[in-house]
């Protein structure tokens, strides 16, 4: 497991410069290994409103937060420009130049900090930073049966074994028809790991993606991250006859269905991508089984 190095700066609302009163209302994050920026913020500013009942600029603050998030999404599509800002060292010049200047306004970014998260899961990193700095704004709708990526792939592997009536699974695993923990090496810098790969004319690389999360921005960030990844891999997949099979878990919270639908629409766009919804997993597994156990 590789540690993710990242740099972040906290966006603070400074109600009074004289009294030094501040509330954290956003976090700007840069992950150098994947050259990607993130901006996370609470969907509701209830804590800010409760702390300052006569706050007159709430709509303006929300507009700023949305504009920051939109700009980050657009900039991620042209990541080559990031080198001009020295993001691997500090976010502050970027924040002051592209988002909001360092002046006497009520919104200010803190001095950037570096961190290391002992995980290769960027989404966990984002969630951890949200929980550290912004959780007080929300009362998350948690559920003990939340579906994560590990649960998705375990279900898929479990279904494969259920189809294996002749108990040939261990013999065929990691053969030329079925692979576990399959890695593609695009170049010296880009390596992508897939939980399962199986042959059916093309080599189908399986990636679980769970949108069963708490916050809509997690769905948006995750969708754009994978959209960028599989768009970048289009020509490589074409030349190697690869297909990317994304097994998707939907959110249990109905209020997240709209961003979830938008995420699916986005992930359908790259070539060589197949979307497998959780409800269709048994049929997909049957096709996997028939392909890897074929005598042809």
Concise account of the structure shown:
By secondary structure, the chain is an alpha+beta fold. It has helices spanning 46-51, 58-75, 92-99, 122-133, 149-163, 169-172, 216-232, 234-240, 257-267, 281-292, and strands spanning 4-16, 21-31, 36-40, 107-109, 113-117, 178-185, 191-200, 202-210, 242-249, 273-277. The model is unreliable at 139-144 (pLDDT under 50).
Largest sheet: 5 strands, antiparallel
Kindly state the percentage of residues in helix: 25-40%
Distance from N terminus to C terminus (CA atoms, Å) equals 37 Å
**Order of SSEs:** EEEHHHEEHHHEEEHHEHEH
Structural class: alpha+beta
Low-confidence stretches: 139-144
Tertiary shape? elongated
Q: Report the sheet-strand fraction.
A: 25-35%
Integer count of domains: 2
CATH topology of the largest domain: Trna Endonuclease, Chain: A, domain 1
The radius of gyration is 22 Å
What report would you give on this structure?
With 296 residues, the chain is α+β, with helices and mostly antiparallel strands. It has two domains: 4-137, no CATH class; 149-292, Trna Endonuclease, Chain: A, domain 1, CATH 3.40.1350. The protein has ten helices and ten strands. A hairpin with a 1-residue loop joins strand 7 and strand 8 (202-210). Helix 5 (149-163) crosses helix 10 (281-292) and helix 7 runs parallel beside helix 9 (257-267). The longest helix is centred in the first third of the chain and has 18 residues, at 58-75. The protein starts with a strand and ends with a helix. Residues 139-144 have low confidence and may be disordered.
């Amino acid at each position: 497991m590789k540690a993710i190095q990242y740099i972040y700066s906290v966006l603070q609302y400074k109600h009074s410069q004289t009294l030094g009163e501040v509330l954290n209302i956003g976090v700007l994050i840069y992950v150098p290994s994947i050259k990607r920026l993130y901006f996370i913020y609470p969907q509701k500013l209830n804590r800010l409103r409760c702390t300052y009942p006569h706050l007159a600029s709430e709509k303006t603050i929300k507009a700023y937060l949305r504009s920051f998030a939109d700009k980050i999404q657009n900039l991620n599509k042209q990541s080559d420009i990031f080198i001009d800002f020295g993001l691997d060292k500090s976010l502050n010049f970027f924040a002051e130049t592209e988002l909001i200047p360092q002046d006497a306004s009520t919104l200010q970014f803190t001095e950037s900090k570096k961190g290391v998260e002992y995980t290769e899961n960027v989404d966990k990193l984002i969630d951890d930073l949200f929980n550290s700095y912004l959780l007080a704004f929300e009362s998350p709708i948690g559920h003990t049966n939340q579906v994560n990526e590990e649960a998705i792939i375990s279900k898929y592997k479990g279904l494969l074994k259920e189809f294996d009536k002749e108990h040939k699974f261990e013999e065929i695993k990691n053969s030329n028809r079925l692979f576990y923990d399959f890695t593609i090496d695009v170049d010296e810098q880009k390596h992508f790991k897939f939980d399962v790969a199986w042959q059916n004319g093309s080599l189908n690389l399986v990636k679980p993606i769970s949108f069963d999360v708490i916050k809509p921005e997690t769905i948006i960030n995750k969708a754009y991250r994978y959209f960028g990844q599989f768009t970048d891999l289009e020509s490589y997949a074409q030349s190697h006859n690869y297909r990317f099979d994304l097994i998707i878990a939907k959110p249990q919270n109905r209020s997240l269905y709209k961003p979830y639908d938008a995420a699916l629409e986005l992930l359908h766009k790259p070539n060589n991508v197949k979307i497998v919804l959780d409800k269709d997993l048994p049929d997909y597994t049957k096709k996997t089984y028939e392909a890897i156990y074929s005598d042809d």
